């Protein structure tokens, strides 16, 4: 019985080793919380929203991953409660679909349970009647539950490159800070 228990522990311990290889595919489902600040006519407006996305990437080396990031952006949009009084509004939940590209460098560790990484992304996102394009760095860490499945937490800071908001001279779109949490899987791993 001791031998079976020891063998099971060894198999589970080695099963949690997670080092990706060139050619592996990575699929990650994540969600995030977004806080953003804009200034218009000297009035500062803070907005909060959420985003769910799917990252689909390929490892070109054991450290370098590149891929696509389709996403759905959820936000509250003020709409008049009554047509006769447009000054009274309530927030209605809206959703838009966007797309991004990303590149990641993973720092492989000896124990392979934790994997820190950093990278950059560019995103296009429609928001209501407008759209925005952002670029920025991100950093995070993955914790491998098994050899293929991981929990992921990262932060990014997106700088607005372009947008279709009204072109008022005093309208400023500030950078966006995001905290992302998700679960991922590596597919195509060779033993």
From TrEMBL:
<keyword id="KW-0732">Signal</keyword>
<dbReference type="InterPro" id="IPR011250">
    <property type="entry name" value="OMP/PagP_B-barrel"/>
</dbReference>
<feature type="signal peptide">
    <location>
        <begin position="1"/>
        <end position="18"/>
    </location>
</feature>
<protein>
    <recommendedName>
        <fullName>Outer membrane protein beta-barrel domain-containing protein</fullName>
    </recommendedName>
</protein>
